[in-house]
Amino acid sequence: MIDSPAKEIFAKDYRAPDFHIEKTELRFELAGDATRVTSRLTIARSATGEKRPLVLNGQDQSLVQVSVDDVILGSDAYSVDDDFLTIHQVTDAFVLECVTDIEPEKNTSLEGLYRSNGMYCTQCEAEGFRKITYYLDRPDVLSEFVTHIWASEGQFPVMLSNGNCTRDVVEDGVRKVTWHDPFKKPCYLFALVAGDLESVDDSFVTESGREVALQIFVESKDLDKCDHAMQSLKNAMRWDEQVYGREYDLDIYMVVAVDDFNMGAMENKGLNIFNTSCVLAHPKTTTDLGFQRVEAVVAHEYFHNWSGNRVTCRDWFQLSLKEGFTVYRDAEFSADMNSRTVKRVEDASLLRTVQFAEDAGPMAHPVRPDSFIEISNFYTVTIYEKGAEVVRMMANLLGESLFRKATDLYFERFDGQAVTCEDFVRCMEEVSGRDLTQFRHWYSQAGTPALRVAGQYDAESARYTLSVEQTTPPTPGQDEKPAFHIPFSVALVGQDGPLSCVLQQSGQEASEFVLDITESKQTFEFEGVPEAPIPSLLRGFSAPVNMSFDYSDTELAQLIRADDDGFARWDAVQTLAMRALADGSGDQSGLLEEAFRSLLKSAENGGADMAMLAMLLTLPNEMYISDVLLDLDPVEIHKRRKGLKALLGSRLREQWLACYRKFHSTGDDIDGSAMAARSLKNIALEYLMSADSSSAQVLAREQFEKSLTMTDVSAALRVLENLADDRNLAERVLADFYQQWKGESLVVNAWLAAQATSARDGVLDRVKGLMDHEAFDITNPNKVRSLIGAFCNQNPSQFHASDGSGYAFLADRVIELDKLNPQIASRLLTPLTRWKKRDQSRQELMKAELGRIKAEDLSSDVYEIVAKSLAVA
Ligand code: TRP
Ligand code: ZN
């Protein structure tokens, strides 16, 4: 427990609501400096014993009038403070009317109703609705919403809310638009938009033959950047019908793009609101990674219509019920649309770097947390990505058809309800007959299990023995960690690939096995193993664990050559590379070079999964290296990685050059093979630049000037910035880039990030300078992430400068931002919380900055992170 002025909320204290709100009718009068909100709530007391008063959540608004059943209440009938409106005595059924004034133009928190580029928009999840009007702001209160939006005629061409538009009239110069959402929903799914927007329109015919209107609303200058989101939406709608049997339910599905947004996007019923960065895409302005992100986020929000909206969460401790499941769904969708192996490796890599670090830090929490101070702090990689892994493990344990049966049961049984992770797991159990008692630890226990694996081959009896030990380190508040149920996918790889053999425990004959690890120590015997094998372990990243096996370098090389599992091969390359980095003398055995040589050869021959090849040829990033090689200074890590790139670049110069020439084109296709070709050739360019910048910069420069895609232009910009000997050239290129793109805010973000993550010296001063540039705006989260976030998270050698200047800079920004946007301030803080990984002197510097922040008058968001970071021993 945390000693705190802010209130900590515990899952065990959950109590069903005393009242429910059958109907919610809202009227918004949008006007210059204040917005009047009138709410009429049809409320009934729940069938619980005690007759408690009605306590509504509400913040940052001024109460004008309250009435019950149309009788205005006197001030002694209610009380109001910073967080609640309490009506002392109410009957069992009544209509409550509240009139309040709010100030969207002054709302910089981007929570509740706010203005972005002149338009009005909302963000209510998790607890933002209470900034709009007094309400039971909790996900287990589901209500039918009718929303009236009033504004002077001609002011806003577009006025939207959830559901269907039932009225649009002008009376006395006031335009009055009414929306009705027939599906009951919690208020966190409410949305309102009013602005000068235009739409790209399309339609979709559902499996059962209903036509759904699809609309993407953007500023008129962005109308040419909506095709990809629209196509992704239609693909997602079809996919959810085919894979989960889920159809869309309303007659209209709207997506709105806004510039100022705290996260990626929000699944409001029938009216998704998106960060422009997750919806706009055009080959000229958007990288291939950006295209894939748009596809994934559009699908993610769409999938929430069932996993989140139709079936929602009982309380915020169940957040992963909707987020983990929906991330699993969008990951499978992306895998079906693109390269399955690449998607899996990307996700495993994200988990292993970012989530494992979270699980080892002061904010470590289970997929279903037990307590929080500020729920916004729990929209984490643990809830989302580890939560998705937990769903994936169950899907794999059950197999495709039983998992589908289980999700059918879940959606059917709980449609229109607010439920728990436990409800989800029980559907899995019921349908499969499997006992998931031990498996449930994945929901309740934080921390990353470590699996230590060893193997032994006995040639005479043709037996291979695999022994597995699991331990999980303690996390704040959880010292004891009973063993997890870990599905551990393995194969035994011979000279030509996985060998067929028999698992003694089950008698099963196969070339791949999923072992159920359930104890702290277990041994498995394989029989009929014809040759000495190399074990291929944790195939497909079958569980979110830290696996170690003492491979020799030549064994790793054999896995890279002969294994057929993409994750295991990639992991083998990463391990070889980590060894080359750890011993500091480069690739002594030459095995990494040899592996790269044959990978490049297969690229030349074509046929292989080119996108996967590009991943295999990418060295571990500095963040991951510094999480594994704890003793190494960030500056030293940077130097060694650079050295290894130069080495591999020069030893394989011909091959890289051939690869570059083969895959370079100036076309702007965005299909999978064109994207794969670009990623491969841009990696080649990076190695070539690392080896010899004076000759390679000619290529880079030409690519910068002639390419039609942002992928190629920005890749060239980055290598020139990071690696060109000719500093003037880098400066010129940066200036040209800005001149050309200063009108495209999202491209400018890439320009900011390229400078913030630069490998050159003196980046902190540049970042400080850029904060005064016309391109920067501290109230815009995308700008903050691109400049400040990128520097602190993706430039470890400079952020961790030994004089502590990076830490002080971050602390100053957090203090500054906390006054404007606590959610963003709190997220920005993450790198300072990881002080335990650093050497003694950096630890002191980091803790001092945390202490300096803690002395301020803080939001609960920042307070929680700072307090928890300083509380760990
Ligand atoms: N539910 C959103 C999603 O995952 C997340 C989200 C969007 C969010 N905006 C937010 C969470 C603001 C907290 C605060 O798709
Ligand atoms: Zn989500």
UniProtKB/TrEMBL annotation:
Where the record annotates domain Aminopeptidase N-like N-terminal, the positions are 100-189
* Domain annotation Peptidase M1 alanyl aminopeptidase C-terminal: ranges: 553-871
GO molecular function annotation: alanyl aminopeptidase activity; metallopeptidase activity; zinc ion binding
Source organism superkingdom: Bacteria
Domain spans labelled Peptidase M1 membrane alanine aminopeptidase: 229-440
* Class of this enzyme: hydrolase
Gene3D superfamilies from the xrefs?
2.60.40.1840, 3.30.2010.30, Neutral Protease Domain 2, Peptidase M1, alanyl aminopeptidase, C-terminal domain, tricorn interacting facor f3 domain
Which GO biological process entries does UniProt record here?
proteolysis
Give every Peptidase M1 alanyl aminopeptidase Ig-like fold domain span: 447-549
Keyword Protease attributed: yes
| E.C. number | 3.4.11.2
Q: Which cofactor names does the annotation list?
A: Zn(2+)
Task: Check the record and name the SUPFAM superfamilies matching this protein.
Answer: Leukotriene A4 hydrolase N-terminal domain (SSF63737), Metalloproteases ('zincins'), catalytic domain (SSF55486)
The alphabetized UniProt keywords are:
Aminopeptidase, Hydrolase, Metal-binding, Metalloprotease, Protease, Zinc
Catalysed reactions, as listed in the record: Release of an N-terminal amino acid, Xaa-|-Yaa- from a peptide, amide or arylamide. Xaa is preferably Ala, but may be most amino acids including Pro (slow action). When a terminal hydrophobic residue is followed by a prolyl residue, the two may be released as an intact Xaa-Pro dipeptide
UniProt lists the family membership as follows: Belongs to the peptidase M1 family.
Supply the PANTHER family for this chain.
PUROMYCIN-SENSITIVE AMINOPEPTIDASE
What is the protein's given name?
Aminopeptidase N
Q: Which organism is it from?
A: BD1-7 clade bacterium
User: Which classification does the entry list for the species?
Assistant: Bacteria, Pseudomonadati, Pseudomonadota, Gammaproteobacteria, Cellvibrionales
